[in-house]
Design a protein that fits this description.
With about 425 residues, the chain is of the alpha+beta class. Helix content is about 30%, strand content about 30%. The protein folds into 4 domains: about 90 residues, no CATH class; about 120 residues, no CATH class; about 90 residues, Nuclear Transport Factor 2, Chain: A; about 70 residues, Roll (SH3 type barrels).
Length: about 425
């Protein structure tokens, strides 16, 4: 009721003012334009009271419901009236707090660079600016395999030699379809001092300076994700779209389904996001026995969950009881494993070899350089019937995935990034 009185009073006042301006124009064109200026409006009312009195009376009539409505609102909700009178409702609402606290300052390829997303996953540190399909500007640092996951402490100077991180910078111009990239393996300065920030973040100092020809330097405080999981109030956010989220959901489902914590889940197949329903073929070792299950994952109001999952919460006591006989069996029959030298498939990798034996390289990270310019990195999915190479790329910001297909004649160079 109080809001209606205030609104009604404002409408009457506005109508009276419009009527007053119309009366001024009917008197003369000069008085009409002058009445748009408040001091001259007052002069017009005093000089031509008989003409203006009806309009002034209508505006004065609107003051009555306006004052009554404001008094009622003050007695019932003083904070609401204060917010209206302070005009806070005209201001922009405060932006939601960022997931990552990134305070880096510098430039990339001579342009200001302010990344909004950062991650260190599978040994690749990525700093990304822009939320589009391709980043406007991006820095990738591939750390050596000998580098521990966390904490990360690394210093590189321009004169250093040996196994150093590979630094790649890329940028997307408005007239380009694919980003342009530059890579170097030495001759730069890098300082990393990243400490663990539970549950799945790293934070610390970051400093990168490339040779002058690259026009790239970045320094400050960095916070980044250590995996592609998200947490809210210390609990896993199952609404986030990533293969790691699905892995956690399936693992929890199998533990409750078989009433045991002894579940070793194999890598899930590649999936495409966004999606609301995903049928998956899952392989797992449960209590030492191999299991192959066909599951359907659905995304609803509670996030991702397995279809038909009505199994109760797993009791810790049951898990301990189940673990004891298994542990005893494993102790009684130790398995002797013969160490074999790891095979580095990057040494003899080529496009013809990939086309002949695609299963050997499935899900491995690759980089494709197109003959027309531009590079794309992603996980190898397979080879189409026409010989095209298919890659899948994880999108950092949105959590989804994108697929690319390259015909052999379009590929200038293809590299395998994992052994």
């Amino acid at each position: 009721m109080d809001a209606l009185l205030i609104l009604g009073g404002l409408l009457l006042i506005l109508s009276g003012l419009v009527w007053l301006v119309m009366r001024a124009f009917s008197t003369s064109l000069l008085w009409g334009w002058g009445s748009l200026i408040p001091p001259i409006t007052l002069i017009y009312v005093l000089r031509h009271w008989r003409t203006a009195r009806n309009a002034v009376g209508l505006a004065a009539l609107g003051v009555i419901p306006l004052v009554v409505g404001m008094v009622l609102m003050a007695t019932q909700d003083a904070a609401r009236l204060e917010a209206i009178l302070s005009l806070r409702w005209l201001k922009e609402p405060p932006a939601a707090p960022a997931e990552l606290q990134i305070r880096l300052y510098g430039e990339l390829n001579g342009q200001p660079f302010s990344p909004q997303y950062a991650e260190l996953v599978d040994g690749v540190l990525s700093l990304r600016e822009g939320e589009d399909f391709f980043a406007r500007r991006e820095v990738k640092i591939r750390l050596p395999q000998t580098q521990p996951k966390a904490p990360v402490k690394l210093d590189v100077l321009p004169e250093d030699e040996g196994q150093l991180p590979e630094v790649e910078i890329s940028w997307l111009l408005p007239e380009q379809d694919l980003p342009e990239a530059r890579r170097l393996n030495k001759g730069y300065t890098l300082h990393l001092d990243l400490q663990v920030l539970p549950p799945n973040k790293l934070h610390g100092d970051f400093h990168l300076v490339l040779p002058p020809s690259f026009q790239t330097g970045l320094s400050g405080q960095l916070e980044l994700f250590a995996d592609r999981l998200r947490y809210k109030d210390g609990r896993l956010d199952t609404h986030f779209d990533s293969r790691e989220t699905l892995t956690k959901v399936v693992e929890d489902h199998l533990q409750r389904r078989f009433a045991t914590r002894l579940v070793q889940l194999a890598a899930l197949p590649e999936v495409g996001f966004p999606a609301d329903r995903l049928p998956l073929s899952v392989q797992a070792k449960v209590n030492g026995s191999e299991q192959r299950l066909e599951l359907v994952l659905e995304k609803g109001s509670r996030g991702w969950q397995v279809q038909g999952d009505n199994y109760p919460t797993l009791a810790e006591a049951r898990a301990v009881e189940t673990a004891k006989p298994v542990a005893a069996t494993e102790a009684a029959a130790p398995v002797v494993q013969v160490a074999r030298p790891a095979l580095d498939r990057r040494q003899r990798f080529s496009l013809p070899r990939l086309q002949r034996n695609p299963e050997q390289y499935r899900t491995l990270a690759m980089r494709v350089s197109k003959a027309g310019g531009g590079t794309v990195e992603g996980r190898f999915i397979g080879v189409d019937t026409d010989g095209s190479i298919r890659l899948s790329q994880q999108l950092g910001v949105g959590g989804g995935q994108a697929s690319f297909s390259f015909k052999p004649e379009e590929i200038a160079r293809i590299e395998l990034l994992e052994p």
